[in-house]
Automatic annotation (TrEMBL):
<dbReference type="Pfam" id="PF14698">
    <property type="entry name" value="ASL_C2"/>
</dbReference>
<dbReference type="GO" id="GO:0005829">
    <property type="term" value="C:cytosol"/>
</dbReference>
<dbReference type="InterPro" id="IPR022761">
    <property type="entry name" value="Fumarate_lyase_N"/>
</dbReference>
<dbReference type="InterPro" id="IPR029419">
    <property type="entry name" value="Arg_succ_lyase_C"/>
</dbReference>
<comment type="pathway">
    <text>Amino-acid biosynthesis; L-arginine biosynthesis; L-arginine from L-ornithine and carbamoyl phosphate: step 3/3.</text>
</comment>
<dbReference type="GO" id="GO:0042450">
    <property type="term" value="P:L-arginine biosynthetic process via ornithine"/>
</dbReference>
<dbReference type="InterPro" id="IPR020557">
    <property type="entry name" value="Fumarate_lyase_CS"/>
</dbReference>
<feature type="domain" description="Fumarate lyase N-terminal">
    <location>
        <begin position="6"/>
        <end position="300"/>
    </location>
</feature>
<dbReference type="InterPro" id="IPR024083">
    <property type="entry name" value="Fumarase/histidase_N"/>
</dbReference>
<dbReference type="GO" id="GO:0004056">
    <property type="term" value="F:argininosuccinate lyase activity"/>
</dbReference>
<comment type="similarity">
    <text>Belongs to the lyase 1 family. Argininosuccinate lyase subfamily.</text>
</comment>
<dbReference type="InterPro" id="IPR008948">
    <property type="entry name" value="L-Aspartase-like"/>
</dbReference>
<keyword id="KW-0055">Arginine biosynthesis</keyword>
<keyword id="KW-0028">Amino-acid biosynthesis</keyword>
<dbReference type="InterPro" id="IPR000362">
    <property type="entry name" value="Fumarate_lyase_fam"/>
</dbReference>
<dbReference type="InterPro" id="IPR009049">
    <property type="entry name" value="Argininosuccinate_lyase"/>
</dbReference>
<feature type="domain" description="Argininosuccinate lyase C-terminal">
    <location>
        <begin position="364"/>
        <end position="431"/>
    </location>
</feature>
């Protein structure tokens, strides 16, 4: 009979047990469930709600159950629904009526809210550490290739020359905000819901602050109905994961382009690529493609959570059991990304000569000419128009921008001097971008130094 079977006269149908179980996916909460129960009984004893000896017996047996679970010596049975029931019933099996005191002043509704919060807190701390590794790998590539110049794109069209290091550091910034989002979300995760009971609190004289301290939470929840009903903290976390996945997906798209024969800017290590069953020459950037695919999956998890919660009347509804499917899937997916990317980035080979060859397209320096005119006090819009006409002039004659004489240039840019013909040098173009945040050598070197210090 189920632990709640007192008012029932027939057992749950097998299909219903299968339909309603969550042990198949919530068993991973076992450690946090046990940690929560240990703190709970310690408080119950301190408040005189259960005897001290019972508390000690329960705590020892909870440790024992944890060891059994970790040793694979613990039987799961869907008739006991979830991890909370499994552990309580294992306690009762060994301790009898003493074990039956563990659930005093507690509901699975506040218990599961507690377990998820404890679990997510650990996951967030782990994820932030992994994000730092990822950032370090990107910074190491920037640091190892401080002079590599490549075309920067907008609309996937040649725009202006940039440093490869600058491109890597753009992703370092994105990952930094991802880490910030996680840290910020942690503040709302780290609030202690136990003591909210099923929804209305309890008549028993519990001490929630004690449990809060015991489990390292910042504070206790202020409203028992809110505490058992909402999962916004988990939605926030999955949102942060979705944004992180999106960033990684964009990096992947850059790498896919860069690996193509047309770009040929980088080569990923063989260990991160796969071949074709048919075409013998193929080496495909499947990991990057899978990341685009897996990102869609994390978005799906976020959408599932938002949708799951939007129509629920207060307070707890069983729909919420499904939250863990989405939360765990998003976490597992992102943790895999975080395992694969740092070594893939570290071992990536940069083909600086190919990047430099692409960056020698003089059209990439057209803006530099317009800005030179602004230095000579030509209004920018006029300068833009002149250089545009110059581009057209060259195009009509089938010439590159650097294949014209000064006289020819003067036909569209009357202010041009000999100096203008020197502006097509990519190194110079980069070097001159020296405002904070720009791609200039000096600025990027400063940024690399900053990140090396921050990530040390
Ligand atoms: N397995 C449930 C969940 O994950 C635990 C809470 C069940 N509470 C209830 N009243 N049925 O949400």
């Amino acid at each position: 009979m189920a632990l709640w079977g007192g008012r029932f006269s027939s057992a749950t149908r097998d299909e219903v047990a299968l339909y309603s179980e969550s042990i198949s996916f919530d068993k991973r909460l076992y450690r946090h469930d046990i940690e929560g129960s240990k703190a709970h009984v310690k408080m119950l004893a301190a408040q005189g709600i259960i005897p001290e000896a019972t508390c000690e017996a329960i705590r020892a047996e909870l440790d024992n159950i944890r060891r059994r679970i970790e040793a694979g010596d613990f039987a799961y049975d869907i008739s006991m629904e979830d991890i909370h029931m499994h552990i309580e019933s294992a306690l009762i099996d060994v301790l009898g009526s003493e074990g039956a005191r563990v659930h005093s002043a507690r509901s699975r509704n506040d218990q599961v809210a507690l377990d998820i919060r404890l679990y997510l807190r650990d996951e967030i701390d782990f994820l932030i550490g992994e994000l730092r590794h990822f950032q370090r790998a990107l910074v190491a590539q920037a640091d190892a290739n401080p002079k590599a110049i490549l075309p920067g794109f907008t609309h996937l069209q040649h725009a202006q020359v940039v440093l490869f290091a600058h491109h890597m550091l753009a992703y370092v910034e994105m990952l930094d905000r991802d880490a910030e989002r996680l840290a910020d979300c942690r503040r709302r995760v780290n609030v202690m819901p136990l003591g909210s009971g099923a929804l209305a609190g309890t008549t028993l004289p519990i001490n929630r602050e004690m449990v809060c301290r015991e489990l390292g939470f910042d504070r206790v929840t202020r409203n028992s109905m809110d505490a058992v009903a909402d999962r916004d903290f988990a939605i926030e976390l999955v949102n942060a994961l979705a944004i992180f996945a999106m960033h990684t997906s964009r990096l992947s798209e850059d790498l896919i382009l860069w690996c193509s024969q047309e770009f040929n800017f980088v080569e990923l290590d063989d260990a991160f690529c796969t071949g074709s069953s048919l075409m013998p020459q193929k080496k495909n950037p499947d990991v990057c493609e899978l990341t685009r695919g897996k990102t869609a999956r994390v978005y799906g998890d976020l959408t599932a959570l938002l949708t799951m919660c939007k129509g629920l009347p207060l307070t707890y509804n069983r729909d919420l059991q499904e939250d863990k499917v989405a939360i765990f899937d998003a976490l597992d997916t992102v943790k895999m990304i975080l395992k694969v990317y740092p070594p893939m980035i570290e071992t990536m080979k940069i083909k600086a000569e190919n990047m430099r060859a692409a960056a020698s397209d003089p059209a990439l320096m057209a803006t530099d000419i317009a800005e030179k005119l602004v230095e000579l006090k030509v209004p920018f819009r006029t300068a833009h128009h002149r250089v545009g006409s110059f581009v057209k002039y060259c195009k009509e004659r089938g010439k590159r921008l650097d294949e014209v004489t000064l006289e020819e240039m003067r036909e569209t840019i009357p202010e041009a001097t000999a100096e203008f013909l020197t502006l097509f040098d990519p190194e110079q173009s980069v070097a001159k971008r020296d405002v904070t945040g720009a791609t200039g050598f000096r600025q990027v070197e400063k940024q690399i130094g900053y990140w090396k210090k921050v990530l040390a």
